[in-house]
Amino acid sequence: MKKLFIPFLLLIFLAGNTFSQKEKNEKSYITIADSIVKTAMTDQKGYAILGDLCKIGPRLSGSENSLKAIEWAMAKMISLGFDSVWLQPVMVPHWERGKTESAVIVSSNKFKNKKLAIAAFGGSVGTDLSKGITAKVIEIHSWAELTTKKQEVKDKIVFFNVPFDNSFPTSFPAYGKNVGYRVQGASEAAKHGAKGMILRSITSKNDNVPHVGVLHYTDSIPQVPAVAIGITDADFLSNALKKEPELKLQLKLSCKTLPEAQSYNVIGEMKGTEFPDQVIVIGGHFDSWDKGDGAHDDAAGCVQSMEVLDLFKRLQIKPKRTIRCVFFINEENGSRGGIAYGEFAAASKEKHLTAIESDRGAFTPQGFAVDKDSASFLKIGSWKNILERAGISWVKQGGSGVDVSYIKNAKCLIGYVPDSQRYFDYHHSANDIFTEVNPREFELGSAAMTVLVFLIDREGL
Ligand SMILES: [Zn+2]
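Above are the sequence and the zinc ion SMILES. Below is the predicted complex in structure-token form.
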């Protein structure tokens, strides 16, 4: 009896001790989380940095502006006092919109000379600039309808008029439902002899601003020009076609694909004091579309990631593990930056504990989406009381992010998930500018990401 009794007492003592230690840690972590939130929200330093970055303008891969921004980012990381800052060279696709972009109704009684708000999709071929292409328009509402009407498509411009599905409680499924038309619509239409493709903008906002994004041409199918049309003009065109189905549209586009260009990922880090070979990556993508400033998509994610390291500095927290901020280039039309960093990580002797991505706009924090490692998922979930100090209310499995997905040897991948309701009001359009970023939402996001990185740094995964 005695022999059993003593270990049993010891177990109770140890359990009690561990419990109180855990409680003690949680208390001190909550204090630190609160000071992270307070500092981010009060200083609004990251928000000011975002404003500076957005002054440079859009950062389409391969553009002169993107190189200016890369130089700016490197100088900024150096000025913030990171331990090392470097550029990782990456070759990127180089597509240019050029100056001409027009869609005009040329043959119709009522609607003649009506100009429509359009913008070419990234990667689209251009047209002859004096004549353009002129064709009748056929309105299509689904892939199934395209198949049914395939005989009628020849020599016409296919107008995919597929509304944003507002029946979902969050906006990403609605985007996911329609994005295939943007990516494959041109080739699917050209397969049946279409001369061009117009897509109703994939957006939750009812304005007339076209929302762009990348398209992919299928080899062996002729490449035809493809554009987004603003919502107001999509409705206008649909109504006009009901009244005059024979009307013709003239498209003129100067866009073209140039040879691949030299570009870079921008990387900055703070070395870990105890486990320097254990790396926590945090980042966003630095390229943007060429409309607006790419403020939400994804200057915000990049600057928030940079602010994570800067908040450690401002609060004089010395990381135990290495915290590395990566600005991935070319997520929008090639993912070359993500691929290149993934290759670097695979060849490196370091251990990538996790990679966290912020690429869903600078809106109010909601949760973290965790991929790959279920033990890490459970551990992060156990920090709920601490994370909620920065507005995080859930930790779910799945959906980390595009760029980090290439870091195959990371133990766990995480996506920062803010509120999604307004993201597609801005996404890939001229609406995506700095003044549309709310400083409190932006800074609470920086704080949420910093609290998570702090916990992973202290507790490991
Ligand atoms: Zn993005």
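The mean pLDDT is 96.
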